[in-house]
Amino acid sequence: DEVPAGNLAFITGLADVLAGDTLVAPELHGMEPLDRLQMPTEPVVTYTVEPKMLRDLSTIQKPIMDFVRSDPALEFTVNPDTGEMLLSGAGELHIEIATEKLRRIGVEIQLGRPVVVIKEQMTRDGPLCEGGGPETSRFSARAVLSRPDLSGHTGNVLDSEPRSDCHLIDSTGTIDPKSQEAQWVREAFRTAINRGPKRGERMRGVTVIIESAEVRLESEEMSWRDITQPLLDAIRASICGGQPELVQPWARLEISSPEEHVGTVTAILMRRKGRVLEMDSERTLYRIEAELPVSESFGLANELRTATSGWATWGARPGEYRPLGNG
Description:
single chain, alpha+beta, 5-stranded antiparallel sheet, globular
């Protein structure tokens, strides 16, 4: 009946429970859940998704959405205008594994050509900007480069997207996080970071600080005009002042290879615009630390396997984002 702290317990037979859910006793129903499970890895590659059989087109979305809920590093979206289905993940291998898992539960899909997820990122802190007028709410907000643990910022964190390191802070303390007004404020923040000003790409590494807020609402039907739009104008103006640029993801690689194949491995990396960072020997194998743009990583596993007759093995982890077109 009890499981003291420090012990492991296993529960079976629970339906519709996924990683990140909070389980409580019936008498605690309605309590505030624990913080949601967050994945530090953000999607870096996107594939279009189609069913293998056209007859499954109308029924395939729900099982994919249910599956994606079990993997916080995956994203699945449907374009409301075109109906195009998009599956995003942490890399080529991640998407291949997800596709195989879907096949095992009876969801047969085929993938289109991969597209690397380009982001927008400010190069410096933006200025304090204002939005609104005498007939709407008034806000002053500043968009700054995100810092570790939001150091140097005080106030209520109204919204956060940890994977892209984007945060919304109310330094005035006047916006109740549980109020309806806060929802419309969050809508302005989400709109701003989901469509950057340079090319409409998602933002990363930006913290928006609300410095002053005079909330005025004529009616709920006018919430966008009275609250969301004024704050959105202030946020976008500050982001533009931070001189945003397009950035692309890089990957860090660790490759193990026999000495006779080291030259082949390094040549493949150089041809793919990669860099060898470190190389050392471990008995009969050489360990190669390298990095390359994610856009150049597609098909790398097969090329290494073929060129070294299967002797080279490798692993990858997320790297940093760098300006598009720069090394």
